């Protein structure tokens, strides 16, 4: 089969855009057409788009002790889907100011885990749900010292109530295998670290 279409910037035509809701996030409805693989422009489509700030997620890793720092907090999106909507996750935050992703990673590590990060290792940038959201996630592993890390953190004015966990990397990987850790950023970061553990430890110890 010969290739008839190579996507480019002129292959999507936004006919009109409606704002359906505006709060902390926005919901927009786009009426658009895009070129199809036949090479012809397709019919008009209507698509709702959840407009979000981009996010930063970081997995704090102690290469000397081979331990990771994870956080636990209530997540409304998990309510009614699982028995326990308190999820084990990465340190994370939104880029909602004039900040670089690395700055957000360091700020959130302090706010959510009382943790100062050293070097940051970029893992990936990805769209968690591009079928209906424009959010892009910047994912890192951050070097840390996990000795004495413990406690409850979070910003009270944002309703945050966050408990810190320090686990051996193998325990966290087992939690992925068991389904206890069931959110995308955590799974991606932990599996990446499992694949790259010796390289990371070699450079960071």
Task: Describe the structure in your own words.
The chain is an alpha+beta fold. It folds into two domains: 12-51, no CATH class; 55-204, Nucleoside Triphosphate Pyrophosphohydrolase (Alpha-Beta Complex). The protein has three helices and eleven strands; from the N terminus they run βββββββαββββαα. The strands form two sheets. Strands 4, 5, 6, 7, 8, 9, 10 and 11 form an eight-stranded mixed sheet that branches. Helix 2 runs antiparallel to helix 3. The longest helix has 21 residues, at 184-204. The chain is globular and about 60 Å long. The mean pLDDT is 95.
List the helices and strands and how they pair.
Layout: E1 12-22, E2 26-34, E3 45-51, E4 55-62, E5 67-74, E6 86-89, E7 91-94, H1 101-113, E8 120-126, E9 137-143, E10 152-153, E11 162-168, H2 169-178, H3 184-204
Parallel strand pairs: 4-9
Antiparallel strand pairs: 1-2, 2-3, 4-5, 4-7, 5-6, 5-11, 8-9, 10-11
Helix pairs in contact: 2-3
Characteristics:
8-stranded mixed sheet; alpha+beta; 205 residues; 3 helices; 2 domains; 3-stranded antiparallel sheet; Nucleoside Triphosphate Pyrophosphohydrolase; 36% strand
Residues in helix, %: 10-25%
Which sheet architecture does the biggest sheet show?
A: 8 strands, mixed
CATH C-level category of the largest domain:
Alpha Beta
Beta strand %: 35-45%
Query: Which spans of ≥5 residues are poorly predicted at pLDDT below 50?
Result: none
Counted beta strands: 11
Query: In angstroms, what separates the terminal alpha carbons?
Result: 51 Å
CATH architecture of the largest domain: Alpha-Beta Complex
CATH fold call of the largest domain = Nucleoside Triphosphate Pyrophosphohydrolase
Number of domains in the coordinates?
2
Q: Can you tell me the CATH superfamily of the largest domain?
A: Nucleoside Triphosphate Pyrophosphohydrolase
- Calculate the mean pLDDT score and round it: 95
The rounded Rg comes to 20 Å
Shape: globular
Order of helices and strands: EEEEEEEHEEEEHH
